[in-house]
Amino acid sequence: SPAGLQNDHKALMKQVEEALHQLHAREKEKHARDEAEALAEAMSQNQSLPQAFAKVNAVTPGSPASISGLQVDDEIVEFGSVNINNFQNLQNIATVVQHSEGRPLSVTVIRGGKKVHVGLTPKRWTGKGLLGCNIIPLQR
């Protein structure tokens, strides 16, 4: 009967409506989650700077370290292949430096609360060592 068909149609429309409603609710949730994630990422870039394992406490003017832009009080996060996870002592850095003579090392430091990348090429110069800076381990 026509009345029966009409009821089916109404029920169907109701289902469609509910499905759409759920879809929108899900989209809203997803959007909120995306925003929260974006915010969390922005926050983490601001705050959680990587852990430094050593600090520059002297840079000789005119030395390779000085020319590369390394500065006193720079906190070292990565020195070539050395980072907080595999750093044991300054010998680790010395070894990397010796192996990289004449080749640029990628050094990452924290300076003024920001990450700074420095390209440091260890090489012979008039002073001692291959860098001309003094690095001290940070006590953890």
From TrEMBL:
Belongs to the proteasome subunit p27 family. It comes from the Eukaryota. The keyword Repressor does not apply. SUPFAM superfamilies: PDZ domain-like (SSF50156). GO terms for cellular component: cytoplasm; nucleus. Pfam families: PDZ_6. Gene3D superfamilies: 2.30.42.10. Keywords: Chaperone, Coiled coil. This is 26S proteasome non-ATPase regulatory subunit 9. Acts as a chaperone during the assembly of the 26S proteasome, specifically of the base subcomplex of the PA700/19S regulatory complex (RC). During the base subcomplex assembly is part of an intermediate PSMD9:PSMC6:PSMC3 module, also known as modulator trimer complex; PSMD9 is released during the further base assembly process. Residues 21-113 form the PDZ domain. GO terms for biological process: proteasome regulatory particle assembly. Residues 9-46 form a coiled coil. Interacts with PSMC3. Part of a transient complex (modulator) containing PSMD9, PSMC6 and PSMC3 formed during the assembly of the 26S proteasome. InterPro entries: PDZ, PDZ_6, PDZ_sf, PSMD9. It comes from Sula dactylatra. The keyword Chaperone applies.
